[in-house]
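Help!! Second protein's tokens look totally different from the first
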Amino acid sequence: MRVPPLYNDRSWQRFFAGMAIGAAISWSIFIYINGVFQEQQSILVKDQQDEIKKLQDDIAIWQEDYKNLNKQNIEQLLIQNIQVKITNHQKYDLDLLSVHQTEDTVMEDLKTLKAKDLEVAFKNKELIKRVIENRRVTINDKKYRLEVTEIIIYTTLVIQLHINLDR
């Protein structure tokens, strides 16, 4: 048995040459289309990476602002100052120095409330009132009793007092 000598036939030679040329052309078209798609994909990925980086920077800025706002809110929700005011000291003709000293002693009693939560102060407002009202003050050899007329609890604890002669 012998292989037929088809390699000498021109039609077969054209067929195999056409297959080789078609394979080369189709391979080059495949490489071109694949390259175009890869280039588009790489551009899309780069754009998305830039967008992600920009959004991450925005998130970092927002988180920093959020932390700063939380710090400010925490500071605002603490008692930072205490003000005590005696409103009717003219009734007993008391001098301003004595009134100021009395206010300072009341503020000394309440200084433990500084830097405490507003909630703690609000829950203990009756205790604060009793501490102040149970205090007897001696001014010019006379005993006086303090009466709480108003308590405002915020970042500044404001307490208004009336002073009455103790009997």
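Here's the second one for comparison:
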Amino acid sequence: MSISTFNQQLLDYLSLSPTPFHAVETMKHQLCEAGFRVLNEREAWSLEQGGCYLVTRNDSALIAFVMPGNEQMIDQGFRMVGAHTDSPCLKVKPNPELNRDGYFQLGVEVYGGALLNPWFDRDLSLAGRVNYVDDSGELAQGLIDYQDPIAVIPSLAIHLDREANESRSINAQKHLPVILFQSENQQTDFRTLLLDQLKRQGIEAAKVLDYELLFYDTQAPAMIGLNQDFLASARLDNLLSCFVGLKSLLDSDRSRGAILVCNDHEEVGSVSAAGADGPFLQSIIERIAPDVELRNRMLASSMMISADNAHGIHPNYADKHDSNHGPKLNAGPVIKINANQRYATNSETSAVFRFLAEQEEVQVQAFTVRSDMGCGSTIGPMTAAKIGVPTLDVGVPTFAMHSVRELAGRDDSESLYRVLKRFYSDQA
């Protein structure tokens, strides 16, 4: 597969996935098309050797796995890849209606550590999950996506804020309510607007009860730059890794035990039923291997790769990096290392990744934060602590992480895909 074909599939996935709910729905569809069978956590499972299965939780987290035989499970364990489906964004409040100066606005909460300035003056749309009562009086839920640009957060003109270019601060409560339309009607009800949207999408609903809705930038993902060196999109952190993990699993030879886990809520600490600091992966592993002795032996033979974007060295802010650890875009995936276990990488797991990369002729970079700066974290350390497997943190170098539009290199995602595909396959 050419890099351009791979990147077009990645762009398509990003376009179809404005929220974690849509991201999981898109992955689920691709897995089912490839022969994976959907399991329900409420039902008893009968797992077959060589079977391919998937499980979702909260509609926003997903685990897919290939089932080995017992002996293979003990001897080889599982090759696991982890990522997360959520990204920093603006989330609609429960009672969001604001009618001010003839404009209908929605109040929002900031989800995760978002860069807020880039959200101004963007063409925004709205998507997510809606829970409702259907026409037969039963509880139901569905996904909505307005798709069109229906909202905006205009900047304040510089004439009214002469210091904006020197010291612009944003008050999330005061400055982020989103404008939807002009209206003198003080009785506009947001749930009624959602009911209309459900019906426009062909969903028969009688009353909207609640929702989890996120604003997103409608500018389409694209290859950019004079030589199209870069991939620009919202939600690269971390849907890029979800796609790479998914594609790697689907294209592997499926000859050994393999797991893909895409958790939710990483950007807010992972403490949830669908997050990496919750029981989702552990509970699935316990059902895969109910026998404690077998399971412990299996985990001792397993390995996890946590895939989450890395900070590429920004040419305008090079002093924010350790000079020996400034990853470049289009120079290969990045092994992420931290002495204080903010990343789970150790020399053993790093060596495995480097070995696999050499076999694929993929260049590898390394990142560690400046010693005088704080370090972010990933699902890697949490997952390693939960299930006790050797773990590596790796990612694609990225600019503008947590912005409404992020930037990655043209070549790096496909390079990571080739290494993860080998990791999943028996040839590894």
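Reply: Different proteins will give different token patterns, so don't panic. The chain has a mean pLDDT of 95.
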